[in-house]
Structure formats: structure tokens, C-alpha cells
Amino acid sequence: MPVTDEAIEKIKAMIVSGELGPGDRLPKEADLAERLGLSRSSLREAVKALSLIRVLDVRQGDGTYVTSLEPALLLDTLGFVVDFHRDDTVPSFLEVRRILEPAATAMAALAMSDAEIVALREVLDGLGAEPTVEALVAHDLDFHRRIAAGSGNPVLRSLLESLSAPAARARIWHGLTWEGAARRIREQHRAIYDAIASRQPEVARAWATVHIAGVEEWWRTTPGSADGVLSPTESNEPGRP
Questions:
Q1: Do 112 and 214 share a domain, yes or no?
Q2: Mean of pLDDT values over 74-103
Q3: In the prediction, which pLDDT does 234 show?
Q4: Domain that holds residue 99
């Protein structure tokens, strides 16, 4: 095992065992290196690597601390990695959404507060009669993020948030090429909202599945979508859903 990897594993073991907890300060570099049987250079590399993935927080002039280790913080790195997806992997991301998002929607039907449901209704009502593609995408992202947050599960919320970048790109092409996209999205969002507002988790799950499966089917069957670029002749109404 490379010495840096060994150093990472040893620091990880200290955190997993509970010896170091969220917010704790690491011992001084010289002391920690001697204690773990590591060189100071390999320890520095390990600390640098763990800070990049938000496990450690290096504060200049103060020391190195374990972060809060909250899911949203740790999974933020996943979103960074997801941004490097290739267009031919979009179907895989959509499949993951089809698995996770209906579950989050069903949970939201039980967990969302009345105030959160009212706010979701305001998002739904805020979409104009003839939205631009950009407005439609922003609306769609906001609608689904609120539902993910309303699931009450921070890990599920963070995972869905991490999938937003590729999903957003797919939604843009979806809006450009799917005739009547704004109307269909509005109708499906309304059905999802109604199921959540009436506290019907399985109905909410079913509508979320239909909604996401529609985007997935569009991606698989629309010429040019796998390349991530659609020519004007392939678009029903360029610039407008």
C-alpha cells in the first residue's frame, strides 16, 4: 500500500473508531506522525487528500480539524465527480434518479410539513403560461429539490442534489425537443403535488416514476440526444419547450 494511502487509512481509522469526532482538532503534525509511524510528508499528503473530500478542514494558523461529517458536506464531492459524466452515461444517471426520486417523493408525502407543502404549491403556481426553457428547467429543479428536502432524509437529499447537474442538462434538451413539454411537466408536477398534499405516498411514488421515466424514454429515443447536441431540424420548437 502506498505510504499516503496508509496514512489516509490510519487517520480514517481514528475517526471511524471515535477517537476523533466531528469538530475535533488533530494532534500536532509531529506528534501525530510519530504516533502513527508515518513520515511528516506522507501525513501532509494524507491531510491534503482528506481535506479535498471534506473530511478534514485545514485552518491556516489554527490547526486541522475533523469536519462536521454531515452527509451534505461529504456528498458534495460526489456532485463534483458527477459533473465529469459523459453524455453516454446520462441514461445511467436517469436510472438512478428513477430509483431514488420516487422513494423520496413517497417519503415527502408523509414527512413534509404543511408550510413546506404550501411553499411547494407556490413553486407550482409560479411557472408562467409560456415559460422559456431556462425558466422551465429552473422550475423543475426547484420543485424536485424541495421534495427531496421534504423527504426528511439528508443522505437521500444529498444524493439527489448530486445528480442535478446531468439531470439539468437532460431537462434542457427535453424542453427543446419534446412537444408540449411545459404542459406535460406542469400536469405531472400538479399530480405529484396533489398526491403529496393529500398524503398519499404510493400515488406520489407512482407519479414521480411516470415523470422521470418520461425523460428517460425521451433520452433513449430522441435522435441526437446521446451526443448531447440536437440540431434545429431535430428540435420541435428551438428555444421554447
A1: yes
A2: 77
A3: 38
A4: 74-234
Q: Give residue 241's pLDDT.
A: 35
Rounded to a whole number of angstroms, the CA Rg of the chain reads 22
Q: Looking at residue 20, what DSSP letter applies?
A: S
pLDDT-wise least confident of 19-33, 58-72, 157-171: 157-171
Cβ–Cβ under 8 Å, residues 207 and 192: yes
Among residues 69, 90, 111, which one ends one of the domains?
A: 69
Question: Is residue 204 scored above 80 in pLDDT?
Answer: yes
- 142, 189: one domain: yes
Q: What are phi and psi of 148, to 5 degrees?
A: -60, -40
Same domain, 52 and 169: no
Distance CA 26, CA 19 (A): 10
CA–CA dist 36, 204 (Å, integer): 52
26 with 82, same domain: the answer is no
* pTM (two decimals): 0.69
- In this predicted structure, what is the pLDDT of residue 83? 62
Domain assignment present for residue 240? The answer is no
